[in-house]
Amino acid sequence: MKRLLYIAIACSLASCARFHERRVLLTGGDEVVAEVGQYKMYKSELKAVTDLATDHDDSVKMADAYIRQWATDILFYEKAHARIDKDIEQMAEEYKRSLYLHRYEEELVERRMRKKVTESEIQAYYDTNKDLYILHEDILKGVLIIVPNTAPETDKLRQWMQHPEDHPEQIEKYAYKYASGYQLFTDEWVSGNQVMIRMPFEGANLSQKMQNSNNIELQDSTATYLLHISDKHQVGETMPLDYAEPQIRAAILQKRQVDMIRTYREALYEKARKGKLKIYKADEK
Fold first, then answer.
1. What pTM value is reported for the model?
2. If pLDDT is split at 50, 70 and 90, which confidence band does 211 have?
3. Domain ranges in the chain?
4. In the chain, beta strands by DSSP E
């Protein structure tokens, strides 16, 4: 049975009278304050904990609790290590190997794999795999402006919103003066849900309205909502290329990484066959 030497120094800078025994060992200039078999705790480690204490009594309590937890963890581990089946050693070794492999693959990818994805590669992948990029929600581009029902010259605003690309300055100036909400998203795709939460549809479905018109107007007791849709794609349609591009770029890089690692592993194998790899048939002795 292993002999346990359990000696604790709560705070070397203050009184240590509460401890019955003190043993000071020096290792690299750092005092050992507790020891369990081959494991040692140093003063610098304990000090990092007790420095958070508010007073001396608190420091002593924190030191005692920390050393108790530290020693208990070690003792519990030793018991577990002695009793648990050796399969855990194999599991640990396999996990260690997988970590090495993963880290080495990351290093190979970082050093050797081409990171740039060209527009032609994206287009070619998109053309070949369109069936993988189907919309599960409506997306649209356009302009949304929300104005109080008391706002002036709303007839002019409605006219401008029919073709906002022809009246960007007028709409922007009007929005600055009177709008309670304004969103210009002609250069980016926005989900239908993002638009719906800003408009009082009251059960009406944006997807249905999108099928009928590119200009939608709604009104509630306080405000008028004008939405112009400059481009749209609905659920079940193929994603437009610019919307699918981030996913395609990631897919290309993932495939490139898999191919590179596979090629590298095959090359290692073929090289080993000419050298240190030896394969014996089952009936050979």
1. 0.66
2. confident
3. 25-83, 136-233
4. 25-27, 30-36, 39-42, 139-148, 181-191, 215-219, 223-233
